[in-house]
Design a protein that fits this description.
Chain A: Keywords: 2Fe-2S, Electron transport, FAD, Flavoprotein, Iron, Iron-sulfur, Metal-binding, Transport. The complex is a heterodimer of chains A (about 260) and B (about 300). Chain A is of the alpha/beta class and about 260 residues long. Helix content of chain A is about 15%, strand content about 35%. Chain A is globular. In chain B, the strands form four sheets. Chain B has an eight-stranded parallel β-barrel, surrounded by six helices. Chain B has a four-stranded antiparallel beta sheet with strand order 5-6-14-11, with no helix packed on it. A two-stranded antiparallel ribbon of chain B has the order 1-2. The chains are: A alpha/beta (about 260), B alpha/beta (about 300). The complex binds flavin-adenine dinucleotide, flavin mononucleotide and FE2/S2 (inorganic) cluster.
Chain lengths: ~260, ~300
């Protein structure tokens, strides 16, 4: 079941020059069950030129406190206004949307995130841990200043890092990290979200080593609920909506 | 109690608010947010004789107060619609209209014939105005002779309410409206999207895979309103107005310009409950203006 609810911003914490974590308090209606990888269509009022809602992943959920966290990267007119919203202001969301990540059929998993693609992996890691699976994270960024909330990921499991400029962790892209360079990978499932080139490389890697790879696409959306057919991705069964059949897809199902 | 009901020829609507094709799926997508039965009608996704995969991604570009789309009539085809979708939605206690499109007159006719057999579909909206398919689509709606030809051919086989959806990408929409009225249309709906374009200055490339696409949303409202007004002065059949309607006031403006009913499109993306809010808003408007029927609004523009 999907809902449209108003949330109150209870904290707005800047992480880096362009990443902000918003903590949103649910109103009277209790939070529905949310699956990792699902997203919300967030209404951003008062941003010139912003007409449509913006899709943002559920970064974390605290059912006890009835709170949702969003990790927002400022990339354009909408996200720049959203991250300036003061504590106490309201945010309207249509949520939870889409099909999230599946539980693995193996305990050996690697969660790979790049850019704002790290957002859904925190909630996924928490969910995996609750299900007796220790998540391991591999996070890739351009430079160390863009690494966000490492402590939160660290609480859930091992965190490995690559930076393009070598300012932290292994220098290069995620695919250059030693964990990806062994003859036999020590994981059977890859969960990933981030720039498409990164996910395509991981999908190829998974094919080569016969692993399962679940990718989360960031296609542009208008409605977020399967009504407009704007967000399609080509799959083995033809065009599918990223907002309802995804955003998480098995990489082998996509025709990339 | 104010009376919200209106009539489109033989079609009785419990209120003048319908949904626009391509923006409301098959209605099911909105079931979590609103009571579909409360709507005056729903117009489901553009349906063609054969299944269509539509255009390549990207199909959408946001523009100031609007959006461009280039979906290209992706749909399962009329047979699959009848087999798997129709049985799921036919219980809706509202008027379900199927938006019918095609590349040739024969395709329109064959699709309309099949839909004619469906008991719970009281009408079709003939889409002769889609700007997003290369062959046919808008081509039928931009010349008077072809608009007349496709309308009369469908009229011959389709026995229920025949609404013809007009393209704004023409020199005189009133001429085309008169043409399809003469060819047997029971009503006209307008406007479909306006042909537009978006360019990414940084990559120096078009945003849409098709380069051009159809503009909708609040940005098109003044044009749509003007066209409804022009068509209202040209035809006697009822008019269904649409184009950027986002509030009850917008809907009322279209009715004052001459529309008997309205369709809500892109605004559904911004608030999935908008149709119900518009119905409630029309009711409050009538109450506060002490009008007992929404029909009093139709063509009620004061110009002297
Ligand atoms: C399922 C999903 C989950 C996402 N999760 C997150 C997240 O957790 N955190 C995060 O920071 N970002 C996330 N994104 C990306 C985020 O939606 C875009 O960055 C945001 O919409 C940009 O809006 P803007 O107004 O700031 O940018 P604009 O000024 O509109 O444009 C800047 C750039 O943003 C991208 N963009 C614009 N509109 C959209 C749109 N409707 N959908 C997707 N991308 C768009 C384009 O690449 C564009 O070039 C997610 C996207 C999807 C589809
Ligand atoms: C994503 C999208 C898909 C559409 N698909 C169709 C369609 O299949 N058939 C049709 O006749 N019109 C289609 N339209 C046009 C709308 O029905 C409507 O005529 C137009 O969007 C103007 O109304 P609006 O501004 O309220 O959206 C589509 C519009 C959008 C935005
Ligand atoms: S965004 Fe409208 S169908 Fe996916």
């Amino acid at each position: 079941m999907k809902y449209i609810h108003d949330f109150t911003i209870v904290s707005n914490e800047r992480q880096t020059t362009d990443f902000v974590v918003l903590t949103l308090q649910a109103g009277e209606a209790p939070l529905p069950e949310i699956h990792p990888g699902q997203f919300a269509e967030v209404r951003i009022d008062g941003a010139p030129g912003v007409y449509l809602r913006r899709p943002l992943s559920i970064h974390d959920v605290d059912y006890d406190k009835q709170q949702i966290k969003l990790l927002v990267q400022e990339v354009g007119k909408g996200t720049k206004i959203l991250t300036q919203q003061a504590v106490g202001s309201m945010v309207n969301m249509v949520y939870p949307l889409g099909k999230g990540y599946d539980l693995p059929d193996s305990k050996r998993v690697l969660l790979v995130g790049g850019g704002c693609g790290v957002a859904p992996l925190l909630f996924l890691g928490r969910h995996l841990k609750k299900n007796g699976i220790s998540p391991r994270f591999l996070i890739g960024t351009r430079t160390s200043a863009n690494l966000v909330r490492l402590e939160a990921y660290n609480e859930l499991g091992e965190v490995m890092v690559t930076t393009e400029d070598g300012s932290a962790g292994t220098k290069g892209y995620v695919i250059n990290h030693p964990v990806m360079r062994t003859e036999e990978p020590d994981f059977d499932w890859i969960y990933t979200c981030g720039p498409e080139p990164m996910m395509k490389i991981l999908a190829k890697y998974a094919d080569h080593h016969d692993l399962t790879c679940q990718v989360s696409l960031e296609n542009h959306m208008a409605c977020g609920i399967g009504a407009c057919l704007c967000c399609i991705a080509p799959t083995k069964d033809g065009n599918k909506c990223t907002c309802t059949d995804g955003p998480v897809f098995d990489s082998k199902y996509l025709q990339w | 109690m104010v009376d919200l009901s209106v009539k489109l020829g033989s079609l009785e609507l419990k209120n003048p608010v319908m949904t626009a094709s391509g923006t409301f799926g098959y209605g099911e997508e909105y079931e979590d947010f609103i009571d579909i039965h409360s709507l005056g009608g729903i117009v489901v996704k553009g349906t063609t004789l054969h299944p269509r995969q539509g255009n390549d991604y990207p199909r959408m570009a946001e523009t100031p107060m609007g959006m461009l789309n280039a979906v290209g009539l992706q749909n399962v085809g009329v047979d699959q619609f009848i087999q798997s979708i129709y049985p799921r939605i036919k219980h809706y206690k509202t008027n379900i209209l199927v938006n019918v499109s095609g590349s040739t007159v024969e395709e329109y006719v064959e699709t309309a014939e099949k839909i004619n057999e469906l008991e719970s579909i009281p009408g079709i909206e003939l889409n002769i105005s889609c700007p997003n398919v290369k062959e046919g689509g808008m081509a039928f709606g931009t010349s008077c002779p072809s608009a007349i030809a496709v309308t009369s051919a469908v009229r011959d086989v389709y026995k229920k309410h025949l609404m013809v959806k007009l393209s704004p990408n023409v020199t005189s929409i009133a001429e085309i409206a008169k043409g399809v009225e003469g060819a047997g249309a029971d009503s006209v709906s307008l406007i479909n999207t306006l042909l537009g374009m978006a360019i990414d200055a940084h990559s120096r490339r078009p945003v849409l895979s098709t380069i051009t696409g159809g503009l909708s949303g609040a940005a098109v409202k003044p044009i749509a309103l003007r066209m409804v007004w022009q068509v209202a002065n040209a035809v006697k059949i009822p008019i269904v107005g649409m184009g950027g309607i986002s509030s009850a006031e917008d809907a009322i403006e279209f009715m004052l310009a001459g529309a008997t009913a309205v369709e809500i499109g892109t605004a559904n993306f911004i608030d999935p409950r908008i149709t119900i809010q518009i119905i409630d808003g029309i009711r409050s408007y009538l109450e506060s203006h002490q009008m007992n029927s929404v029909q009093n609004l139709i063509g009620g523009l004061i110009t002297e």
